[in-house]
Amino acid sequence: MKSSSRWHYSRADLATSYLQQLEAGLNSIAIFAERRKGKTEFLLDDLNPVARDKGLRTVYINFWERKSDPVYCITQGVKRSLEEHSPSLFKRWKKEFSVKLGAIQAKASIDPTTHPELSTEALDMLVKSKDAVLIMFDEIQHLATNPEFEDLVSSLRTFLDTNKKKVRAIFTGSSQDRLNKLFRRQKAAFYRSASLVDFPDMGEDFIAFLIGNFEELTGRKLSVQKAFDIFQDYNNSPFVIVDLLYTMMREGLYDFDKGLSYYIEKNNPSEEWRDLWDSLKLIDQVVLRELILESRPLYHSDTYKFVGDILGIGKVTRGAIQTSIKRLREKGILNNEGHGQWAFESKEFRAYAEASNNT
Ligand SMILES: Nc1ncnc2c1ncn2[C@@H]1O[C@H](COP(=O)(O)OP(=O)(O)O)[C@@H](O)[C@H]1O
Ligand SMILES: [Mg+2]
User: Fold this and answer.
1) What pLDDT was estimated at residue 303?
2) Which of 157, 276, 277, 340 lies at a C-alpha separation of 20 to 30 Å from 53?
3) Could you name the CATH architecture of 12-198?
4) What is the pLDDT of residues 210-219, one digit of tens each?
C-alpha cells in the first residue's frame, strides 16, 4: 500500500458523498470503472482517511492480491486492519486465529471450497468492538470468475446481512459484466445487496493540479489544455498522464510533443492491448471487428460467409459465432448488454481493435 504522494489529487468530496449515502441507509454500494481509472487510489487515499476521521474502523481487501485465493485476500485484509488500528484485537487475532490459519496455510493456498468459513471467522473479529466498520472490497468481480468461489460469496452476503447495523461495504469492480453477474442476477448470492453508484472521471481541475505540481517541482510551465487533451485521448485515465509527467520530469523534457513521443516509444500504452489482441483466435478478432462495424446482424448468413472467407473455410456456423462470443465474454472482453447486444468492457481496447487492420 503506497501512502498518499504529492501527486495525489484529493477526492475527499466524493468520499464524503459516498459515506453520506452509506449513512443514509444504503448499507453497501458498488462502483464500476475500467482499469486505471483511480479506484484503488481513491479507496486507500481518499475514502480510507475520510472514513477514519468519521470514526469508522476501515478494512481494505483486494481480491487481486492473490487471485487464486480469495480467502487469503480477506484474512490478510483483516489482519492488516487489526494490526494497524486495534492492538488489543490484534493480540486476540494472534492468539485465536493465527495458529489455525498458519496450520491451514502451510498446505499451500487455502482451498476456497473447503474453508470459506475462515473468511467469516476473520471478519467476525472486526465486529467484536463497538465501532462501526467500513469494508472496502476491491476487484470484487474476481469472485465471479470461478464457480468455486460461490460458497465464499454466500458467506460474505450472510456476514453483511447479519451485521448490517455495524458494517458498511463498498465494492469496486473493473468488469461490468462480472459485476452484473454478482449483483444483478436473481440467483446470485449478492443479488441486490448493493446499489451501483457512479464513479465519475476526473476533470480539468485534476489536470490543473498536476500541471501546478510539475511547475513547482521543475520551474517549467506546461499547457493545461494540452495536458487535458492527452488525458482525454487516453480514455480519461489518470495513469497515463501522471506517468507521462513523471517521465518528462525525470528525463528533463519540458515540452509535451517531445515528452509524449518519448513516452510512447519507451512504453507504448497500447502494448498490453496488442498482447491481448494477438492472444485471440482469428475468429474472435473477426467477430470483434464485426461488432464494431455493425454493418450487418451478427447472426446472419452474410456474416457466416464473410467470417468463413477470412478464415479460409468458406462459411462458419451459427454455433461457431456463439462459441466465439462466449469465449470473448469469459475473457472479460465483452459485456452482455441484454437483447443480444454486446459491448466492449474496455473503450480503450475497442479503440485498439478498431484501429488494428491485421485480422
Ligand atoms: N486521485 C489521483 N491523483 C493522482 N493520480 C491518481 C489518482 N488516482 C489515480 N491516479 C493515478 O492513476 C494510477 C492508476 O490508479 P488506480 O487507483 O490503480 O486505478 P484502478 O484501481 O482503477 O485500476 C495511479 O497509480 C496513479 O498514478
Ligand atoms: Mg485497482
Assistant:
1) 94
2) 157
3) 3-Layer(aba) Sandwich (3.40)
4) 999 999 999 9
Q: How confident is the model at residue 4 (pLDDT cuts 50, 70, 90)?
A: low
- For residue 269, give the C-alpha cell: 500504452
Ligand 1, residue 202: give the atom nearest the CA: 1
Residue 63 C-alpha to ligand 2 middle, in angstroms? 10
- pLDDT, tens digit, for every residue of 262-276? 998 888 777 888 889
Give residue 244 CA to ligand 1 midpoint distance, Å.
13
Query: How far is residue 21 CA from its own chain's centroid?
Result: 21
* Three-point CA angle 100, 105, 109, nearest 5°: 145
CATH for 273-357 (1.10.10.10, 2.40.37.10, 1.10.1240.10, 3.40.309.10)? 1.10.10.10
The three three-digit cell numbers of residue 280, written as one number: 485471440
**pLDDT confidence of residue 106:** 65
Which residue of 1, 10, 41, 236 sits with most ligand 1 atoms within 8 Å of its CB, as the best mutation to test the pocket?
A: 41
Contact residues of ligand 1, CB 6 A cut-off: 7-9, 11, 33, 35-41, 238-239, 242
Distance of CA 36 from the midpoint of ligand 1 (Å): 6
Q: What is the pLDDT of residue 161?
A: 93
Which amino acid residue places its CA nearest to atom 27 of ligand 1? 239
Q: Which atom of ligand 1 is nearest to the CA of 7?
A: 4
Provide DSSP, 310-325: HHTSS---HHHHHHHH
Selection from 39, 49, 34 nearest residue 3 by Cα = 49
User: Is this prediction's pTM over 0.70?
Assistant: yes
Q: Which ligand is nearest to the CA of 12?
A: 1
Domains 12-198 and 273-357 fall in the same CATH topology: no
What are the domain boundaries of the chain?
Answer: 12-198, 204-269, 273-357
CA 195 to CA 291: how far, in whole Å? 30
| Shortest-distance atom of ligand 1 to CA 243 | 27
DSSP per-residue letters across 134-167: EEEEETGGGGGS-GGGHHHHHHHHHHHHHTTTTE
